[in-house]
Specification:
Helix content: 10-25%
Number of strands: 10
Distance between the termini: 128 Å
CATH superfamily: Lipopolysaccharide (LPS) transport protein A like domain
Radius of gyration: 31 Å
Number of helices: 1
CATH topology: lipopolysaccharide transport protein A fold
Strand content: over 45%
Largest sheet: 10 strands, antiparallel
Order of helices and strands: HEEEEEEEEEE
CATH class: Mainly Beta
CATH architecture: Sandwich
Number of domains: 1
C-alpha cells in the first residue's frame, strides 16, 4: 500500500467526521423541558377576610381563614381551612367551612374541597338547614351549588341523605339526585 492510499483514507475519514459534525450542528433543537416545580404565588395572606362583589356591586360571598394564596399565572385563589358566607339574592345567608377552597379569577366559581359543612340559620321565617357533603362546586354570583358526592340535609324534624346534590339559594331549592333516604320525626301531639 502506497502513501497515496493512506492520504486518501485519511482525507475520507476527515470528510466523514466533518460531515457528521456539520449535521450535528444543524440538527433541529428540541425544546428544553419547562421547569415543573410548584406554581409561584403572587401573594400570600394570613388571617384574612375577603369580600367578593357581584356585577351589581353587592357582596356575593365572603371568605376568611388562616391562609390565602393568589396564583400569579391564572389569578386564582387557594384557601386553607376557609370559613365562608354565601349570600342569596334575597339576602339570606349560608355560612360554613371546608378543608380547602379554590376561587377562579372572576369570583364566579368556587370549589369547596374536602369535607364541607354549610348552614342556614332559621331567620325571617325560613327554617334552619345544615348540609354535610364533600367537594361542593359553587357559583356564588348565580346562587347555585352542586356535588356528585353523598350529602346529608338536616332540618328540624327530618334528615335527608342521598348521593349527588344541587341547590339554588335564590329559589330556595335543594335537590338530592339519587339513593335518597329520609328520616322524619313524628309530630308531637299536645295532650
Amino acid at each position: 500500500m502506497d502513501r497515496r492510499y493512506w492520504i486518501l483514507l485519511a482525507a475520507l475519514l476527515a470528510l466523514a467526521a466533518g460531515t457528521e459534525w456539520i449535521v450535528w450542528l444543524l440538527r433541529e433543537q428540541g425544546e428544553e423541558p419547562a421547569f415543573a416545580g410548584p406554581p409561584r404565588s403572587e401573594y400570600v395572606l394570613a388571617d384574612y377576610t375577603l369580600d367578593a362583589l357581584g356585577n351589581d356591586g353587592r357582596r356575593s360571598f365572603r371568605l376568611s381563614g388562616p391562609r390565602l394564596v393568589r396564583r400569579g399565572e391564572d389569578g386564582s385563589l387557594h384557601a386553607v381551612a376557609p370559613r365562608y358566607l354565601l349570600i342569596g339574592a334575597d339576602g339570606a345567608t349560608w355560612h360554613g367551612t371546608s378543608e380547602a377552597a379554590w376561587v377562579d379569577r372572576n369570583g364566579s366559581l368556587m370549589k369547596l374541597q374536602g369535607m364541607v359543612e354549610l348552614q342556614r340559620d332559621g331567620e325571617g321565617g325560613i327554617g334552619a338547614i345544615d348540609i354535610e357533603t364533600r367537594d361542593l362546586l359553587t357559583r356564588p354570583r348565580d346562587g347555585t351549588f352542586e356535588t356528585p358526592a353523598p350529602a346529608t340535609i338536616r332540618r328540624p324534624g327530618s334528615i335527608l341523605q342521598g348521593t349527588g346534590m344541587r341547590g339554588d339559594l335564590d329559589a330556595k331549592v335543594l335537590e338530592l339526585l339519587s339513593d335518597v333516604q329520609s328520616t322524619i320525626e313524628p309530630a308531637r301531639v299536645a295532650r
